[in-house]
Every structure is written in C-alpha cells, then in structure tokens.
C-alpha cells in the first residue's frame, strides 16, 4: 500500500517524509466561517476537525473527509471547499493515530517504506479512524438539516472509506455502511489490508479515482483499480486521470488540472447519486471513466 508516490522512494528520508506530509497539506488562507474544533469520540479520546460551512443557501447534507497517513485536518482543502460550494457542510478529520506524529515515529522506527506500510495496516489506527468518522458525522449532522451524506478519503483515507462501506479486511474492523455515497482517491488493492473479494459486499454508490502515475508501494497504479473490479454493479464508477500522481490527489496545490478534473468527476458522480441516474456523463479529455 502506498501513502506516497513510488517515484519519491529513492530520495533522502527527510525529503520523502516532507513529501508524505505535504501530499495532504494544502493550507490556503482560511475562508470566512472555517474553523478548527476539538471533538470527543466514543472511547473518550479527542480529535480535531476543520469545518467548511455551506458557501451559500441551505445545507444539502454533510461531507466527511479523511486524510492519508501523516496528514491532518488542514489537508484536502480543495475537496472540502468544492463540497462547501455544492451545499454540503464539509468536515476534514484530523486522525490522531495516523497523523503527522504517528507517521514520523513509524518512519524513525522502520524507515520510509516500512513505516508507511506499518501505519497503513495498523488495526488500532483504523479502529480510531472509524470512531473519528462517527464523531465527525454526529457533529455535522446536528448542524445540517439536509439528509445527504458522503464520505471521501485519500490513500489511507481511501482505505477508511472502503472499510466504512463494508469491505472485508485483515484488521478486524467493521464499518457502519451508513453514508449515501463514498469517494476513494488512490484506493488500495489486494494485500495485507484487503484480501481478494474484499469489496464484493459493498452495495452503496462508490467512486474510485486514481491516475496513471499513482503508483503503489510494491505495485503499479493498476492495483488501485482492483476495488472497482471487485465490486458488484450498481452505481460504481472508476475514474483514471492521465498523468496524475499520488501526491496530486492529496491537495498540495501544485496540480490544479488534476484537482479540477477530480472535483468535476466527484460532482458528476454525486449529481447522479442524488437523482438516481448513475450513467456515465459526457467524456472529458484527460479522464478514462468506467461505470457499472
């Protein structure tokens, strides 16, 4: 499993760690209404969230966003802003068991590859993530009258999305399968976390997004298409963006075209979910889209 672009692996450890964190840290100037809030989850531990209120009009629903390994609530801003513009109360979670300090410690203990692999397959980290999602959802739902709900995640966050949607797994966690729709950017394929057939019982709408340079540790970008291939038909989309890397999806701000194509695809998908029509939209240059 990868939380970084495989092309960065030959670089010095400090450089690679900086990129791991940067891939989920796009920190533009705050917009009016954005704030960081602390929540308590069911086990009593606390987490931080960054909220993006609905840009205008009434609240259609909630969008919960889950960062990759080494990230924080300050990441995925381009996605949160887009969801806010579309009428969602957007919440980016800071996952304490798999944030910056957790990744830094793992890298010190086992190096870049070993540290990332260990964190991205850690049972306690995923149990914590699902509790984080539940706490963030409860907080957001109490502040939005709209009933729509979507869970979005990048890399380890994409694994969180699949787990919450009901994927079988090797870490012994069970998701609530309670969101209307799921969006997984850079999802993981078959490995220590997800066995073969892991995604066959996911029945809700799912959009998987990857790129032709979104390589995984120990595999190629094509392994990120395995979840889509393993899901039964029924509003399942797979988008492959030409030339997009793992870091591009994390919201560093250095790939505006990839971010734009990602947002456009998510909007088309959620519009289809909203109106019960998940047919493929008109082709867009730079994206290969499969629908089943």
Note the topology.
Blueprint: H1 13-22, E1 35-40, E2 46-52, E3 61-66, H2 77-85, E4 88-94, H3 100-119, H4 123-141, E5 148-154, H5 156-165, E6 181-185, E7 206-213, H6 226-230, E8 236-245, H7 246-249, H8 256-275, E9 287-291
Parallel strand pairs: 3-4, 3-5, 5-6, 6-7, 7-8
Antiparallel strand pairs: 1-2, 2-4, 8-9
Helix pairs in contact: 1-3
How would you sum up this structure, described in words?
The protein has 292 residues and is α/β, with parallel strands linked by helices. The chain has one domain: Alpha/Beta hydrolase fold, catalytic domain (Rossmann fold, 3-Layer(aba) Sandwich), CATH 3.40.50.1820. Helices cover 33% and strands 21% of the residues. The protein is built from eight helices and nine strands. α1 packs across α3. The relative contact order is 0.15.
**Helical residues, percent:** 25-40%
CATH superfamily: Alpha/Beta hydrolase fold, catalytic domain
Q: Whole-Å distance between the termini?
A: 25 Å
Number of domains: 1
Provide the β-strand percentage band: 15-25%
The total of beta strands comes to 9
**Helical segment count:** 8
User: What fold name goes in the CATH topology slot?
Assistant: Rossmann fold
How are strands sequenced across the largest beta sheet? Answer: 1-2-4-3-5-6-7-8-9
Structural class computed from helices and strand pairing? alpha/beta
Radius of gyration: 17 Å
Global shape:
globular
CATH class label: Alpha Beta
CATH architecture: 3-Layer(aba) Sandwich
Mean pLDDT: 89
The SSE order reads HEEEHEHHEHEEHEHHE
Low-confidence stretches: 1-30
């Amino acid at each position: 499993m990868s939380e970084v672009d495989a092309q960065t692996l030959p670089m010095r450890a400090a450089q690679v760690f900086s990129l791991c964190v940067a891939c989920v840290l796009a920190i533009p100037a705050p917009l009016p209404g954005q704030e960081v809030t602390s929540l308590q989850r069911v086990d009593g531990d606390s987490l931080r969230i960054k909220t993006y209120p609905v840009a205008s009009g009434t609240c259609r629903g909630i969008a919960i966003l889950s960062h990759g390994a080494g990230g924080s609530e300050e990441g995925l801003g381009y996605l949160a802003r887009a969801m806010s513009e579309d009428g969602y109360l957007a919440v980016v979670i800071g996952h304490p068991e798999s944030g910056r300090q957790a990744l830094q410690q793992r890298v010190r203990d086992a190096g870049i590859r070993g540290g990332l692999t260990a964190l991205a397959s850690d049972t306690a980290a995923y149990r914590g993530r699902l509790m984080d999602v539940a706490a963030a959802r409860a907080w957001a739902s109490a502040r939005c009258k709209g009933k729509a709900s979507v869970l979005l995640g990048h890399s380890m966050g994409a694994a969180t999305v699949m787990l919450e949607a009901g994927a079988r797994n090797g870490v012994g966690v069970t998701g609530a399968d309670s969101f209307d729709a799921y969006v997984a950017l850079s999802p993981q394929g078959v490995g220590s976390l997800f066995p073969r057939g892991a995604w066959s019982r996911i029945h809700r709408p799912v959009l998987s997004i990857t790129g032709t340079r979104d390589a995984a540790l120990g595999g190629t970008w094509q392994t990120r298409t395995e979840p889509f291939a393993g899901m039964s038909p029924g509003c399942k989309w797979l988008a492959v963006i030409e030339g997009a890397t793992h870091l591009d999806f994390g919201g560093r701000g250095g790939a505006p075209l990839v971010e734009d194509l990602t947002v456009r695809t998510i909007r088309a998908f959620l519009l289809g979910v909203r109106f019960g029509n998940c047919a493929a939209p008109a082709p867009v240059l730079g994206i290969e889209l499969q629908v089943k």
